[in-house]
Design a protein that fits this description.
Layout: H1 2-15, H2 18-39, E1 42-54, E2 60-66, E3 69-77, H3 78-83, E4 90-94, E5 101-110, E6 117-118, E7 125-145, E8 152-160, E9 163-169, H4 170-175, E10 178-184, E11 192-197, E12 199-201, E13 211-214, E14 217-226, E15 228-235, E16 245-253, E17 256-261, E18 271-272, E19 284-290, E20 297-300, E21 304-313, H5 330-342, H6 369-386
């Protein structure tokens, strides 16, 4: 009874006045599409996707694909396009029937959401070059980056295994010269093993792509040991200042540096700088100069220091005889005595007064005639010693 009443009610609700209800439904649908087109319109978006080989034969390897990427145009609602994950969309190149050499293979779009459509016009085939797969053994080398903690040095580095298998296309495997395990030792202060992923490298140390390494992970063991450490002052080494100047002050920054070495540092008292040329310095100047460290030693930190040098003019001594009233200093007396020794009028260089040739006596009287005559022979003897002889018949 109850079900019959519900059934009759539903039939009357649908049938009664059905033309009006149909028109209302049509109008509602039109309005819904109109609102949807305004608030969430349809648009087209271009995306670039890679071409990925699939169904690759085990004995072959794709070494070149043309094109490597394809541009697709997706059409759909704005809300759907804004949420699409382009990384999931790709073009698949089916290599099931590929052979060694060039092959034209079909392309297929995958990963497109159901609420989006791909606009026609994209390429449907790709050219793929295939090569035979080979496996070769290559040595494994370690490559160390960084430096250990201060006061430590790398003693030995070893890698296990020291040989690795390289598998891939013939052309790619032939380019591989070795596998390299790069390990970063920055700041380590004790020996330790490192698990490192190996990389295939060619003779130019460039990474070779498209090959597989077995095993892909190798163990690099780095052994370090502690160095001798000593803190010593910096000793600036200066050249000669300009003439008339002297060095008034020298300061190094930093004043203390840290030296590490394998050898004993007990005898190391200071670290000199390279020779600093101050031949043109008149005043104060800052210099950046390197430390002169022996080859078996190492400076922890910058290998150069800043040296500040100051020169001053040398003051001149006072002139002789310029003493103050009341007498000159003792030094003045010595200078005067030296001047007397060097002066042509000093007692040493002054001629004897008895030989001066005065012809008057002490009382002003004329000397006797005999005295003058007695002195004349000596004068004539002196003239004979200093006067050249006369020639016969000639004048003076």
């Amino acid at each position: 009874m109850h079900r019959g009443r519900v059934h009759n009610w539903l039939v009357s609700a649908l049938v009664d006045n059905w033309p009006t209800k149909l028109v209302a439904l049509i109008v509602a649908v039109i309005l819904w599409f109109h609102v949807l087109s305004v608030e969430d319109p349809q648009r087209t978006q271009a995306v670039t996707v890679p071409v990925v080989p699939i169904n690759e034969p085990s004995e072959l390897r794709a070494i070149a694909i043309t094109p490597e990427t394809v541009e697709l145009r997706l059409r759909g609602r704005d809300s759907a396009l804004s949420q699409v994950e382009t990384g999931r969309i790709r073009m698949e190149a089916n290599l099931r029937n590929a052979k060694v050499g060039d092959n034209d293979v079909p392309l297929r779009v995958t990963g497109v959401p159901l609420n989006l459509a791909v606009v026609p016009g994209y390429p449907t085939t790709a050219k793929v070059e295939m090569d035979t797969v080979i496996t070769r053994a290559r040595p494994v080398n370690e490559s160390v980056r960084g430096v250990p903690a201060r006061g430590f040095v790398i003693e030995r580095v070893s890698v296990e295994p020291n040989e690795i298998s390289v598998r891939g296309a013939t052309s790619a495997v032939r380019d591989v010269a070795r596998a390299v395990a790069v390990v970063d030792v920055s700041g380590i202060n004790q020996s330790a093993p490192f698990e490192v992923r190996a990389e295939a490298r060619d003779n130019r140390n460039v990474t070779v792509m498209g090959v597989e390494l077995d095993p892909p992970i190798v163990t690099v063991t780095v052994q370090v040991r502690e160095l001798n450490v000593k803190y010593v002052p910096v000793r600036p080494v200066l050249g000669a200042p300009p003439p008339g100047y002297r060095v008034a002050g020298v300061r190094a920054d930093p004043e203390i540096v840290t030296i590490t070495s394998d050898q004993d540092l007990a005898g190391l008292e200071s670290v000199p700088t390279l020779l600093l040329d101050i031949s043109g310095l008149r005043g104060t100047k800052d210099y950046s100069v390197s430390l002169n460290v022996p080859s078996q030693m190492r400076v922890e930190g910058p290998a150069a220091v800043q040296v500040t040098v100051t020169t001053q003019a040398v003051s001149t001594a006072p002139a002789a005889g310029a003493g103050s009233e009341g007498g000159s200093p003792a030094g003045g007396e010595e200078e005067e005595s030296d001047e007397e020794e060097d002066s042509p009028t000093s007692a040493v260089n002054r001629p004897d007064e008895s030989d001066s040739g005065d012809e008057t006596g002490e009382d002003g009287s004329e000397p006797p005639a005999g005295g003058a005559d007695a002195a004349r022979p000596d004068e004539e003897q002196g003239n004979r010693a200093t006067t050249p002889p006369r020639s016969e018949g000639g004048g003076t």
